[in-house]
Amino acid sequence: MKLQKFVWVMALIGAMMLATACASEPEAVEAPAAEAPAAEEAPAEEAPAAEAPAEAPAAEAPAAGELAAPVEYPEAVLMEGMRAPKVFPVSDIVEVKAFDEYCEPEWVTQLVAEGKLPPVAERLPKEPAVYKEGFYSDGVGQYGGIWRDVWAVPLEGWNYNAGAVQGWFGIEAIVQEEPLNTGAMFMTEGVTPIPFLAKGYEWVDDGMGLVMNFLEGVKWSDGDEFTTEDIMFLWEDNIMDPNVSTWTNASFWQIDGQPVTLEAIDDYTIRFTFPVAYPTKFLYNLTNLIFSPGPAHILKPLHPKYGGKDYQSYRDALPPNSLPVVTLGPWVPVEYRTDEFLVMRRNPYYYKVDSNGCQLPYLDEVQFTYSKTGATRTLNTMAGTGDHSNVENIETFDETVRQSQDPNATFRVEWGPETLGFDVQFNQSKDLGVQNDRDRVVRDLLRTPDFRKALAYAIDREGLSGSLTNGPFFRPWAGALFPGSAYFDRSSVVYYPYSPESAALLLDGLGLQDTNGDGTREFTTGPLAGEDVVIGLETGEDATDGSLGQAIVAFLQNVGVKVNFRSLAGTAMDANDRAGTWEMRIGRPGQAWATPNVRCRDIAPVRTDFAWHRLAEGEVAADEYATFEQRAIEIANEFCLAADFESEYALMSELNQLYTENVYTLGLIVGRYGLMMNKNFKNIPVGTPAFLYQWDANNYLMEQIWFEEANRTDQGQVEIYPQTVPYHADCNYQTDGAVCVVGPGQ
Q1: Confidence (pTM)
Q2: Which residue from 37, 52, 86, 550 has the highest number of Cβ atoms inside 10 Å of its Cβ?
Q3: Would you say 482 and 672 are in contact if contact means Cβ atoms under 8 Å apart?
Q4: Contacting residues for 233 by C-beta, under 8 A, at least 6 apart
Q5: Phi and psi (nearest 5°) for 739?
């Protein structure tokens, strides 16, 4: 009864919080296609109103002394507002060609006339990347207007080559450009990457090599040319340097334990050489974040190999106020106030144009406001003071849906497949972060399947999912693959029902018993004998997992396991992750569990920095990996090389069964992301998901979004630095705080 009351109270608190808050080239050249379908297919037209959520079958009461048997996992239900994406060949989305003449905003042309910028033809590549008119949702756009958004993670700096965080929430997607875009593959035939910096690519030497050509004449925002030197600096001096904390490491870029090599052929051509033929999924790695080159002409002198002080200084070399940022992206950060705001202005050197030869982007300015929670951007978008959000914060679902039904709402919502999941992750590393006897005992416990199963039995996931929102937004989840994945096999799920009695049996069998009757179990053997069983649980303070954390504390205390729950800054969680100094954490799993075909090296510990099983330095212990993990590694390696969907599906079914049976992670609840946008935005691709192959800002191709003139200020939008572009030479923003932008007549 106490537990049921707790869940009910949590739901009531959430509702009260809401009420108070409401008083955002062409196709692959000669590449054998390993075609995989997009995620869970939605109907072509909007779905009917959502049905009641499917109930998880009740577990039959086990006989005394027996564990409750796993139950069948139910099917999903559709939600109103789901639309199937419009799908195009990549050749209908982008091409590479030169125009006889180009266009730009009139005030930028005035800057050229005043000698403050080179002519647009000189700022663009020899042959720019061109978005073709046929794929536009609303046609060729108009110049003008701003984008208002929120970020909620501390901005560490601009050296993303070395793993510095730009605050997420779309900032990374704006400042980083990549050879191939994977976010917008939801609208490409055959799940084909879209060339960005790459002009094209070709498989050579019977598939043992991949030659990639880059656009010639792409320029960084300071006017310096982008070449393969930038790519090789990223590869040789960051990814392959073990002292640099990049988003991947050398082990990520291996196939069957053998390295992939990279060489520059000339300033615009590189060649990868592989240990196996036609590893087509490798293309998906050449994308945002993990293969986004930084400006070598800025970063190289700061790297220890080339005279820089040390690796920490290198990582921190471009602090948040090192502005304007030198970027290849459509907008340039020009002003930053710590934990307040970030302003970006259009990049006059951006390398893309529309089908009329007009330089992109269409919008002139991007404004980010800082908040400690991402829920603020949803509230801002509902209020008309923001333009975009992902409906992902549990406490805002009900109000978002209610307000979206209002014909006067300033926003619209597009619901995606079931890929919004929350789980409990367990630190599975044998030794990384273990510093004393307590760490050793707790780590061994976390690595024991029966302990993880006990926690699965202890949590009422059906009650939890129903208490968080009104309506069919969430349902229980077993973990591993999302139900919205094209690779999800419902019959492969091993789902342990709510059964505190079964949890107690497993905990007793592990020697964890309440010997003094105080309601908390104690260790009965080993160096911690007589001490309470206490496990740490953490979540990010920028996330909205707090209600889940508090519920978990109560559920586990009900079976005698004490949990120390705390919220940490995202940067602190990242530090704990790298050091291995965490025990359990509430996670929101990434794209690998929706689209494993794109993230095949993220689905098992085939890399030394796998999400919840990082390796300590040195020789790998014989018992580092559990038997099921060893098979998972084999499956992931087979999957990465599989070339047909049937084989891929069978492998993922086996993996899903292994993970759910062994509770590799403890799935809690799963639902759907909603993409929430200013309803006046033009060219949002139909059916754009907030989360699938990439996060939202990599999906909707922000540079081709536009406003009609009447809608640029109708919600109170105001440009901070109208009709200006950034300049880099002689800028002293770090010392004097003067924003380095220039406009006509200035």
Answers
A1: 0.83
A2: 550
A3: no
A4: 161, 293, 294, 296, 299, 300
A5: -70, 125
